[in-house]
């Protein structure tokens, strides 16, 4: 890497070999983004070509209208032509001694077809939603693809979400089939996932459960309802015709946190999402024939969908997935995996980088890590120290570090510097992906000047992979994304600014969403969970800075009974784990007599947030109860 001032550039050698190394692509794409994406769309397989590339009826838009496609044909069938025996997927189990499992494109193709046939026999049809609640095992990828094969819409729910969180999502999708596993390994212990699934399907439409045998733990099994995955596919044919999908038909629903309590089901399309997944993966991770790509995100998140399933497969690439915890059995585990498989591109989140930074340099220094060529970061702003540590200790100062901005809603990476072009600048994600038009707008709706912070928005024609709606909730779709700046501008809810080179820095969310270890959590979601506690009359949750997790939630609660602070904390934590899952556990729960409020009764979360920073509280005279702030200050001392 070459350093010029604050900027880093790929060296000549890297640049020469990179798939994209000429800046001209940006200009070409901007001149006619629709034509640009159309050109890319031609490189994936369509059963029938589209009639119109882009159609806009605000707040709705369509890509590749009239086209017929099945994404699994490009991801699997097409790869059989030249890559039949190429390794597609490597699965690394948590236990160090256990054998990895390796699937060639042909293996994966057959397994997906078998499961697709089995799902059909179970009654699954095009357009049906199918829930997936699974650990990181090959069968989760196979399940997603099998759904796509038959035109069923998969809705993956993160396996560490609580049964209650699963239930809410299953209710919304009205799925009749759920695919899960008996259990999985986490830090050497077996987690009984099936038990969670059994609980989660209560009061839902789920009639059948497909259970992958993974951990061999004892589970409750209801013969007419539960089916072993391994039995189901045993006698199925290796061939299942790929359902003809409309380009705009939904491929999957993935739930994410909105500013209110209820999760939003982001709907992604077959055609546009596929095109974007392929080319963002290809160009940003510079996927070439011999590369081995590893994205550490769980399939429960959008990163897992796009870069641990569709993106690599659409490029005929080899990729790794890992079942376990990053630091188990010791903090060298990830480095060991990098060396073991000769990972060339490694994609992870700042929170993990900060955790390893804390464990110490002795871990990465014990390993060679010399196969690495590109590093990636995603999920939250990466601070300078973490960037430098990652760049130096993991990338050994020779790997371009792509800081990639995107959202569950955008379906794929939309802001980053391309590895063969650069420049890379710590704390700046980079520039728009070719063919995507961003702006940063101030309160008056005008473009911000250099350094001025404003709202990050996407302008037409947006991106082919941007969400098409919130499942069964058009009002929320309109209100969340298409109201702030009018119905022709997509509002990201992120604050951003540009430097003199045009590089975009993401400052963070401007709504009530916090990023806890990269996971997106709405403070409103936590508040709704806490409010279910019968002794609690009022509560407020705010995000505060954390050295490793970036941000963590802290809760303030007002109780009607006289419970001890200790007890209430325990109960609130239990409540949140039950409603959402351990990732949302608040760092602190403060029992207070009153919450700061305006005269109209609105809780002033902004003041609570400021109590954790060095910022001035400002004028409190507008509050109806300024004394509440004094009380809270005493508690925090
Ligand atoms: C939010 C979206 C997209 C996959 C994982 C997160 C924040 C994401 C970056 C980055 C600064 C980032 C934004 C965004 N974010 N990437 N490179 N730098 N912030 O998906 O859970 O839907 O969260 O994550 O605030 O809006 P998500």
TrEMBL record:
One of the GO biological process terms: acetyl-CoA biosynthetic process from acetate
EC number: 6.2.1.1
Alphabetized GO MF terms: acetate-CoA ligase activity; AMP binding; ATP binding
Keyword Transferase included in the entry's annotation: no
EC class of the enzyme, as a word: ligase
Keywords recorded for this protein, A-Z: Acetylation, ATP-binding, Ligase, Nucleotide-binding
A UniProt-annotated Pfam family: AMP-binding_C
Stretches assigned to the AMP-binding enzyme C-terminal domain: 525-602
Domain AMP-dependent synthetase/ligase: 77-461
Domain Acetyl-coenzyme A synthetase N-terminal: 23-74
Family in the record: Belongs to the ATP-dependent AMP-binding enzyme family.
Protein name stated in the entry: Acetate--CoA ligase
Organism: Candidatus Nealsonbacteria bacterium RIFCSPHIGHO2_01_FULL_38_55
Lineage: Bacteria, Candidatus Nealsoniibacteriota
